Amino acid sequence: MNLRIDLLRELASAKHAMALTGAGISAESGVPTFRGADGLWSRLNPQELASFDAFLRNPDLVTEWYNHRREIANHAVPNGGHLALVQMETLFPDFTLVTQNIDNLHRRAGSKNVVELHGNIERNYCIECGKRYDGDAFEENESFKCPACGGLVRPDIVWFGEMLPADEWKRAEFAARKAEVIFVVGTSAVVYPAAELPVTVKQNGGKIIEVNIEATPLSSIADATLQGPASEILSDIVKQLMELQGIA
Ligand code: APR
Fold first, then answer.
1. Residue with CA closest to ligand 1 atom 7
2. pLDDT over 80 at 248, yes or no
3. The pLDDT value given to residue 143
4. pLDDT at residue 85 above 70?
C-alpha cells in the first residue's frame, strides 16, 4: 500500500514529524485491543477494572487484572510496526512518538523519544507515600502493600476519569503544534484528549496519515488512510521514505 508520490515527497523533506499509536499497533504482538469485535471492553467492564474507585473497592481484583495484562505485555515481542517507528525516528530531524499504550513495547523496540500519555504497566507506586515499585520491584500477588508504609500499590497508568500526566500531555501538544505530519496508527481515535492531537496537527497545517485495518472517525479528515496491518503498512512507508531520501 503506497502513499501518493506527491504526499511522499512532501513527507520525505519534513523536519518535524510525529506518530500517535494505539492498541492496534500491538495487536500483531498478541496484546488484545479494547474496542471492536473481540476487544477487551466487549466482554469486560472498564468501570470495574480500570478506575481508581474500582481499585479502592476491590484492590485484589484490579491488581490481578493488571498482573495479567503485565504478563501478556512482558511475553509480547515488538512487531514490525514498532520496529518501523524506531527507523522512522532516524528519518526525520525531529520525531516524537506519542502512545496511548501502556505495554512498554515501543521502548522495548528501541524508540527513544516516547511520550506515554496513559502511563506504563512496568511502573507502579504507593497511593499513600508515593514510593515507586517499578519493573520486578513489584511483587505480583493480590493487592500489593507498600513495605515502607503499608499503603496500597497501584499501576502507574491513567484510569478512566483520571487526568493525563501533565508533562507528557504538554510534550505531546508541543509536538502536535509543530508537526508537518502525524502518523496515526492503530487507534479508534475515540478517546480524548489523545484523539485531539491529529486535529491540532491539521489545524497547524500538518498532514494526517492514518494507518488502521478499518475506518475511524478520523478517516474523514485524514490526508491519507492506509488500510491494513500496521506492521506491513509502516514498513512500506519507511521503505518508500528511505528510497526517496536516497538511503535505501
Ligand atoms: N493494524 C492496525 N490497526 C489495527 C490492527 C492492526 N493489526 N488491529 C487493530 N487495529 C485497530 C482497530 O481497527 C482499532 O481502530 O486498532 C484500533 C484499536 O482501537 P482501541 O481498541 O479502541 O484502542 P485505542 O484506540 O488504543 O484505545 C484508546 O482507550 O481503553 C482506553 O486507555 C485505553 O489507551 C486506550 C484508549
1. 229
2. no
3. 77
4. yes
CA–centroid distance, 213 to ligand 1, in Å, is 10
- Pocket residues: Cβ below 6 A from ligand 1: 22-24, 27-28, 33-36, 39, 100, 118, 186-188, 191, 211-214, 216, 229-230
Q: What is the pLDDT of residue 211?
A: 98
1 pLDDT tier (thresholds 50, 70, 90): low
Give the residue numbers marked as catalytic: 118
Going along the chain from its start, the domains and CATH numbers come out as 1-31+77-118+164-248 (3.40.50.1220), 38-75+123-157 (3.30.1600.10)
Q: Which cell is 147 given?
A: 513495605
Cell of 159: 484510569
CA of 113 to the centre of ligand 1 (A): 21
At 163, list the grid cell. Answer: 487526568
Tallying the residues shown for the chain, one arrives at: 248
Residue nearest to atom 9 of ligand 1 (CA): 24
Confidence of residue 223 (pLDDT cuts 50, 70, 90): very high
Q: Using 50, 70 and 90 to split pLDDT, how confident is the model at 232? A: very high
Q: Whose CA is nearest to atom 29 of ligand 1?
A: 191
- CA atoms of 195 and 184, how far apart (whole Å): 9
pTM score above 0.85:
yes
